[in-house]
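Researcher: Structure for this, please.
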Amino acid sequence: MRRRRTRSLIAVLAALFAVTASACGTGGPSAAGDDKVIKIGAWLPLTGAQATFGVPERAGANAYFKSVNAQGGINGRRVEWIVKDHAADPQQTVQIARRLVDQDGVVAIVAANGTSQSQATFPFVLEQSKVPILNTLGGDASWYRPAREGLFGLQTLYEDQAAALGDWVARDGAKKVLVVHSDPAAFVNVAEQIGPAARNADPSIDVKRLKVKLQTTDYSPVISKVKARKPDAVVLILQASEAASYLKEAKLQGLDAPSYGYAPVAAQSTLTLAGKAAEGVKSVQLVKSPHDDDPAIKEFRAAMAKYEPGQPADFITLWGWEAAKAFVEIAKTIDGPVTSESLTRAYEKARHVDTGVGPVLSFGAGRHLGTRDVQKVVVRNGRWESQGDFFTPPVRD
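Model: Predicted structure, token format:
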């Protein structure tokens, strides 16, 4: 009788342990259930208007992870990157985050996309689950000042891109600058940073702003207003399609003031839509030009042709590649199980991480944004070409 009671007690305890282990699914040392696999996740806009960013970014990161796995993975561990579509919806992203953490058991979110979408997940992913979010495309200064536990970025903030543009136009000799920007607050905030940076380089420079309704398609009246202002340089804080509309109409109306743009303007779609009207446009970018004759860029193009042959090698695919490569380089430094905690500690210790395609990254316990640097690019003969090397924008007030 005693043996039967003992066996019954053991069975009950085993069942209770199984339930507890299931409920705590991500709490093991690897949080992936297999020490031969590093399971990570991401949310990207793969459908809807923002899919033009999400689909190529996924292809670029995929190409890098596939090439790493083909060479044996990270210290002998294969990377499994689980990507889900949030369709640019923050609420949907929260549900995706729960599936990735609770059901898929990822140890980190890597190379995700979306500012409001990612931010909506912070309470559950960063604070409750203690799963790091690494190398996300998007973000603002509040993410990193002060540093948030488990949140690490490699994208130079839009505000710093604007500071770089203001300094650039001033040093190019412009005296009367017009910033043409979309009307949502996020665009206005970026546009407001250009004037102070320009005046820091040249106190006599005159910088004005012209607000345009988001998703404007007819830029004829906009160009008429620009011509009336008689600027000798124009800075575009617009989406790529709208920047292309601006450039085409400017050429039609004979507006010859040189144009500058931030990273979203420096896209292949700008060239495709604007055609010859884009020739000579200057912009800043987060990475080198995908057309550069550089060993790291050649490696990228070869991997894209091999692993993602249907996707052009452009700036956005290169963003994904850079984010994936930075993660792998830092994860390689971990001696022992790759867990959420060990990844967070590895990022805090990461210094001088060189992906070869983007700026050198350095993190720290209080520094979770790896860089402020940008790359100048210019359209020549219908292609974006790098100009010089990465540089650090002036410090914003």
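Researcher: Any notable elements?
Model: The first strand starts at residue 37 and ends at 44. The chain has two domains: 37-156+292-366, 159-285+377-391.
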